[in-house]
Amino acid sequence: MAESLSARQASKKTMAIILAGGRGSRLHQMTDTRAKPAVYFGGKFRIIDFALSNCINSGIRKIGVVTQYKSHSLLRHLQAGWSFLRNQFNEFLDLLPAQQRIDEVHWYRGTADAVYQNIDIIKDHRPQYILILAGDHVYKMDYAKIVLDHLQHGGPLTVACVPIPKEQASSYGIMTVNDDGLITSFDEKPKNPRTMPNNDKMCLASMGIYVFDAKFLYDVLYEDEQTEDSSHDFGMDIIPRLVSQGKAHAHDFSISCVCNRAKNQIYWRDVGTVDSFWAANMDLASVTPDLDIYDQDWPIWTYQMQLPSAKYVQDLNGASTILRNSVIAAGVIISGSSICSSVLFYNVRVHSFTFINEVVAFPDCVIHRGCRITRVILDRGCELPRNLVVGENKEEDERRFYRSEGGVTLITRRMLADLRKKEPWLFENFEEYCHYNN
């Protein structure tokens, strides 16, 4: 009977739990004031919008979002942009912050514990299948297809997987799979990862996407709670244990990926480092991005402020703006400057005689006259003084700001405040706009 379910029926019997409580420490100061899923991405979105949009587009409208670390901006975004689901139609977005529901000692101790501590809420909705998702990855996926694949395998657990380069594998759960799709081994963040058959340069990684039979998951979580030496984490404890019992099947991401039709290749990014985050944004500014955010058949939903269109005006000498291969959001005003391969979020101001190349500027940034900035991420509300140069002198950038291994410079408001104390002459005749938030 289960095999005859349509995608629509399977989706209606599924509840999604999005794990959005992590800090994302590898993003450094970008997550000092917000959780990683709340980090801005692509000129308009937050990272969590991709998992949420995949749910909506897949027909899954029973969603719980588990939060913990510095969740205020994330909760504000969810309340403002994702309140359109209707409870009277059995649609909802439940916000599940850490509340010590099980006892008054423990906050969320791991990903599995985060689900366990909300198990009474989940049971109240009576789902037949539970889809566990990470809230900090960028991709487009039809979750209905992984649920149907789960039903076809007939096992209690399905894990989505994707090939990744071997040099990246130590940051993921790495698995091997037999010809029947059964996962035969699973190693969380191994130092010496096993490669794929016939390809010693690639490994098969878990995407942090799991489909469980609901009743089976409840039993597994109760058992894990009673295990003294458990870290109460899906990747570290539960998935390896179920793999050893022969209860976990793999789902090939290529089956359910919503690809860019111009390229027809899978796209999944863990934008967990400064370099990978910057590179994923730069891809969107390219001529034909790997990730198609313009696909109206699979839209990415988000909260939008009501803002005027972007505007480009002449500089003080009457010269026009030069704009190449860039993403420019609403409310941006650019005055006679050169913008190349960059992503500017809403309400960014760029003053005259400025050169910007391969830059990601979060909302409400102000770049004053005469700046030259290359390979830079500007956190929200940054205001650069006149004639500041970044990206041309490695030693100077490292002394003033954070510079990644890949040569990307991250600038935050706090860094600029420290720079103002150390090098006050940079801020002479400084015109402060003072409009920023998280």
UniProtKB/TrEMBL annotation:
State the pathway, as annotated in the record: Glycan biosynthesis; glycogen biosynthesis
Organism's domain of life?
Bacteria
Pfam family name, one: Hexapep_GlmU
GO MF terms here are: ATP binding; glucose-1-phosphate adenylyltransferase activity
- Indicate the segments forming the Nucleotidyl transferase domain, all copies: 16-285
| Record flagged with keyword Nucleotidyltransferase | yes
The catalysed reaction is: alpha-D-glucose 1-phosphate + ATP + H(+) = ADP-alpha-D-glucose + diphosphate
Which biological processes are named by the entry's GO terms? glycogen biosynthetic process
Q: Which residues form the Glucose-1-phosphate adenylyltransferase/Bifunctional protein GlmU-like C-terminal hexapeptide domain?
A: 308-411
Entry keywords, A to Z: ATP-binding, Carbohydrate metabolism, Glycogen biosynthesis, Glycogen metabolism, Nucleotide-binding, Nucleotidyltransferase, Transferase
| EC number(s) reported in the record | 2.7.7.27
**Residue positions binding alpha-D-glucose 1-phosphate:** 108, 173, 188-189, 206
Site (Could play a key role in the communication between the regulatory and the substrate sites): which residue positions?
A: 68, 107
Does Hydrolase count among this protein's keywords? no
Subunit relationships: Homotetramer.
Give the UniProt family note. Belongs to the bacterial/plant glucose-1-phosphate adenylyltransferase family.
HAMAP family reported for this sequence = GlgC (MF_00624)
What this chain does, per the entry, is described as: Involved in the biosynthesis of ADP-glucose, a building block required for the elongation reactions to produce glycogen. Catalyzes the reaction between ATP and alpha-D-glucose 1-phosphate (G1P) to produce pyrophosphate and ADP-Glc.
Q: What is this protein called?
A: Glucose-1-phosphate adenylyltransferase
Q: What phylogenetic lineage does the species belong to?
A: Bacteria, Pseudomonadati, Pseudomonadota, Gammaproteobacteria, Aeromonadales
